[in-house]
Every structure is written in structure tokens, then in C-alpha cells.
Amino acid sequence: MYFLKLVIKNVFRSRLRSLLTLVGLVVAIVAFGLLQTVVDAWYAGSNAASSSRLITRNAISLVFPMPLSYRDKVRAIDGVRLVTYSNWFGGIYKEAKNFFPQFAVDHETYFSLYPDFVVSPEELAAFKRDRRGTMIGRQLADLYDFKVGDVIPIRGTIFPGAWQFTVRGIYGGKNDTTITNQMFFHWDYINEEVKRIAPRRADQVGILIALVDDPSRSADIGKAIDDTFRNSLAETLTETEKAFQLSFVAMTEAIVMAIRTVSFVVIFIIMAVVANTMAMTARERLGEYATFKALGFSPRFVAALIFAESLAISLMGCALAIAATYPVARAFGAKTAQLFPIFQVSDVTVFMQLGCAIAVGVVAGLLPSLRAANVNIAEGLRSIG
How far is CA 363 from CA 266, 272, 278, 305, 358, in A? Predict the structure, then answer.
């Protein structure tokens, strides 16, 4: 017990220095946790993907559509239980800055493939009945204060024109990790207008989504789908939903890697700061450590004293930083809700923060503790700090 009391007294002997070191640790570890949470948010869509769903798109690029007739051929493939389709709309709500995902979907089947979207039967039925009806995610509804019955004007970009949709339902998520910032409406409504103004673009869809009976057969079923349309005018590429989502993340992989690198650079910098603090502490107290040795305390005890002090500072900073990470992340997530609909500090991030703090304490205290343990008693007693 006396050892612990001695460590705590030494930690706060130079209060200003200890306070500044703790502040630096807290800022660094909070920054590390926030940057790691940004990386997690980047992968939120792919992490929520289902292994039972396959995505089929045009083999050339996602921007090229496929004939709607492909749906029936995919449905006929062995192992496919259900098929739906979706098309990116890309419209603008009031201002260009109001970006959120908008999809024209098969209103009859789309929600059957996504059980993570929780919607009341009454609202789903109302959505299916109304040709201009739309389903709005809870996160999107909260962001723009949409309510059932509201009319949402959207200015088309890919599909030019002034479109209006009536909110017929607001769907929630099965759990906190379900992304609900999308807007879904009838593909038929869009297709009818396209037939009128650009008939050649009609009856085309962006992607087909197939629900398979056995996820372990996904690779074989995907190959069968692509073989069906080989040498056609619109060959296909079929992949799992997770692979499809990760293909978007891959476009910004350099940014993700840069964020990861910066997060560890921050920890390296604070490690140098704490190491400098502990080196100053050991240099100032050489006389004390020499006295300990002269009184019969072992070099191991002296080294442990410095080492424990370094760990104590790091762990106190870590505790404060973890406590601060959650409110900081909530505030950051509220400001970036459109970019990161799911922004939550994971348990893995917290454990990484703890691991980094321990690493900082160990590395920062290693050399000063060895120096203190090996101090010559006569030289140490002559030291004046």
C-alpha cells in the first residue's frame, strides 16, 4: 500500500507538469478514438450487409443500366428465392447541400428483402397504394423533420424534372447499427415519365438484388447469374452485398488509410511528450533514488517506482479520455449525420484506446526507470536535480 501512495504523491508532486501531460494525453487519446470511429463509420454500410443477398449490376460500370427483363431470368436460377430491383435517383432536395440517398425501387418486393428495415404494415400498404408515395428512414426524417403526409419536392438530375413525393411511412432500424437515411419510392412512377420523354431509357434498372436460399452457395449462384447473360448486350457482374458495398469504400481507400495513419501518429507524438516528462522527472530525483538505494531498497524497487508513475499518468489520462470520447463523438456525429449516418464508438475502439495508453506508459517509463535503477549512489547523492 505504501508503494501505491508513494506513486500517487510523485505523480502530483509537480502539479502543473502533470496537469499539462494529462491534458495532452486526453486530447491525443480522444483524437485517436474519434479518428478510429470515423473509419468504423466509413465501413458501416458493408458491415451491415447480409450474406444472403447478391447484387447484380452491369459488368461495365454501375452507371450503365440493365433491362428489367433480367429480373425474371435471375428469379428462375436455382437457389434464388426472391428478386427485386433498385435504381439510384440522385435528386436534389431544395438545395444542393441537402444530399441523401434516393432510390426508385420495386415497391411490391423491396422491403421483403430487407428485414432490418422495420415498418408498420399499415404504412407499407399505404406506400404500395400511392404511386407517388415514398418511404423515409427514421434518421432522414429526424434530420429534415419529415412527417407522414408531407410532400417532398425533388429536383431530378439523372432524371430531369420537378418530382413530388408524398411520405406514406417512416421506417426504423432493427438495431442501432441499421442505416436509415434513405428515401425509397416507386420505380414505376419514374419509369412512366421516362417512357414519355426518353423511351429508349425506359424499362431499365440499376441493380438487381437476389435473396438466396443458402449463403454458402452465393459464389456458385452468382456465377450462374453472370453466365446467363454472358455475350448479351448488357453482361452482368454479380457479387455479395458486402463486396458491393466495399467497392465504394475502395474508391476512398487512400483517405481511410490516411486517417488510420494520422490516428497512430497522434499516439506516437504524445508518447514522446510523456517520455520527455518522465525523463525530466527521473533526472530531477536522482538524489532521491540514490537515497532509496542507500537505505537498502533494491534497484528493481526504484525502477518500479518510475515505471508505475508513468503507467499511472497514462491510465488516468486514458480514463478521462474514454469518458470524453462519447460526448465528443455524439457531437461530431450530429454535425456529420448526412455523411456518417452511423457514428458510434465501438468497444474495439475503447480497447484500442486503452492499449495505446498502456503502450505510452510502458515506452515512456522504460528508459527513465532503467536509468534510475542503475544510478550510482555516490553520484546520485551529489546530484542537486
Answer: 15, 9, 10, 15, 9
Distances (CA, A) of 365 to 45, 127, 227, 304, 319: 41, 64, 62, 9, 19
For 165-174, 229-238, 370-379, which range has the lowest pLDDT when averaged over its residues? Answer: 370-379
Q: What sign results for the dihedral spanned by CA atoms 365, 367, 372, 373?
A: positive
What average pLDDT does the segment 247-273 reach?
82
Which secondary structure element, helix H or strand E, spans residue 117, and what is its range?
strand 117-118
Cβ(240)–Cβ(56) under 8 Å?
no
Asked if residue 53 belongs to a domain, the reply is no
CA distance 300 to 346: 38
Whether residue 197 is found in the same domain as residue 121? yes
State yes or no: pLDDT of 11 exceeds 90. Answer: no
Q: Are residues 258 and 370 in the same domain?
A: yes
Contact (Cβ atoms closer than 8 angstroms) between residue 11 and residue 18: yes
Q: How far is the C-alpha of 353 from the C-alpha of 329, rounded, in Å?
A: 14
State whether 109 and 66 are in the same domain.
Answer: yes
Provide the grid cell at 343: 457514428
Instruction: For residue range 100-151, list pLDDT tens digits in order.
Output: 899 999 999 999 999 889 999 999 999 999 999 999 999 999 989 999 999 9
Q: Within this chain, do residues 375 and 338 fall inside the same structural domain, yes or no?
A: yes
Asked whether residue 135 falls in the same domain as residue 215, the answer is yes
Strands, E assignment, 148-234: 151-156, 161-173, 183-186, 204-205, 207-212
Alpha helix segments (H runs only) across 160-209? 187-197
Helix ranges restricted to H, the chain: 2-11, 15-42, 44-47, 70-75, 121-129, 138-144, 187-197, 218-228, 241-250, 253-284, 286-294, 299-335, 347-373, 377-382
pLDDT digits (tens, 9 = 90+) for 308-334: 888 888 888 899 999 999 999 998 888
Place of cell 534510475: 372
- Give the C-alpha distances (Å, rounded to integers) separating 172 from 135, 211, 345: 10, 21, 21
Residue 378 pLDDT exceeds 70: no
Q: What is the domain count for the chain?
A: 2
- Domain ranges, residue 104: 60-234
